[in-house]
Amino acid sequence: MSPASRRRRQCGAMQEYERLLEEEPSFRAGQQRAEDLSTRAVASGEADRVARKVIRIPTVVHVVHRTARENISKSQINSQITALNRDLRAKNPDVTKVPAAWKGLVIDSKVEFALATRDPNGKATDGVTRTKTERRQFGVGDDVKTKAAGGAPPWPATKYLNVWVANLGGGLLGYAQFPGGPARTDGVVILHSAFGTRGTAQAPFDKGRTTTHEVGHWLNLRHIWGDTMDCSGGDRCPDTPNAEGPNYGSPSFPQVSCQNGPNGDMFMNYMDYVDDAAMFMFTAGQVTRMNATLAGPRKQLAKL
To answer: pLDDT-derived band of residue 304, with 50, 70 and 90 as boundaries?
Structure first.
């Protein structure tokens, strides 16, 4: 068994969220503004308008590498874009595994990502930057996003989704910045061996679902259990059952907590912590929240 296959999913999005609350004076207000814009987008019908057409978001992948292995191939990058779009469009083959009780909640988000063809200066690009670093690993805290700390600077967050791929430490698979944060650090960060479906990607995180999970956060989705461990949380989506905490590995259906029987936790949701092969759905409520984000705080990227 490889080290990766013994690992539990570890997402640093909420750690990053708490850090920004402490270190960025404008973040709390920015988060509230993002929520307010999303709420207005739903009330005004703008979120519904987003849902009527395919939204394709330009994406740049910043590969930050110390070793040749960490300098992942374009093929591995392409495999991740394919997997991400398949998951968001509910075209993933394993969506058929969704329990019968929840099949009716699965819908196409009509959100897609495509590697950028023009850089910020208008020059042709393949949508990938490559930066050699002396850093052995990165963590939460955004060093990977700054040249001075051994990382790569972002492209404008109003025009691109920035994705940093690097070697992360402490068991971290990835993290994302929620809407409302600083533009200079906006985007998602993914461990190279949890990115895509080939190359350095290692089981049980080799189906591209870490990026699906983190892009969910970037589109303002919360963890399915609401980040409490006592049934008092919630993910702000009405069609996801309340859950006591994260699920790991490959659970058997049902897993009951918080008196949510008979169907139990929606552990196969992309916003839980199960292995890649055990997660395969977003709900209609989550799609509405993503669409509201693209009609609200991330409207510039949706080109509405």
So the answer is: low
Amino acid at 76: Q
**pLDDT score at 89:** 99
Beta strands in 15-127, from DSSP E residues, in sequence order: 55-65, 111-115
Active-site annotation holds for 46 = no
Q: How far apart are CA 161 and CA 135, in angstroms?
A: 24
Indicate which residue of 16, 46, 70, 214 is catalytic. 214
Residues 6+ apart with CB under 8 A from 56: 112, 113, 114
What does R_g of the chain's alpha carbons equal in angstroms? 18
For residue 163, the 8-state DSSP code is: E
Confidence of residue 303 (pLDDT cuts 50, 70, 90): confident
| Nearest-angstrom CA–CA distance, 276 and 102 | 19
Say if pTM beats, i.e. exceeds, 0.85: yes
Note every long-range contact of 281-284, with CB atoms under 8 Å and residues 24 or more positions apart, other chains counting: 281/90, 281/95, 281/98, 281/102, 281/105, 281/106, 282/87, 282/88, 282/90, 282/106, 282/109, 282/216, 282/221, 283/102, 283/105, 283/106, 283/237, 283/239, 283/240, 284/105, 284/106, 284/107, 284/239
User: Using one digit for the tens of pLDDT, what is the confidence trace for 45-58?
Assistant: 999 999 999 999 99
Q: Looking at the DSSP assignment, which residues form a beta bridge with residue 111? A: 55
pLDDT at residue 3 is higher than 60: no
**Structural domains of the chain ordered from first start:** 12-222+283-301 (3.40.390.10)
Distance from C-alpha of 304 to C-alpha of 294, rounded to nearest angstrom: 9
- Higher-pLDDT residue of 179 and 4 is 179
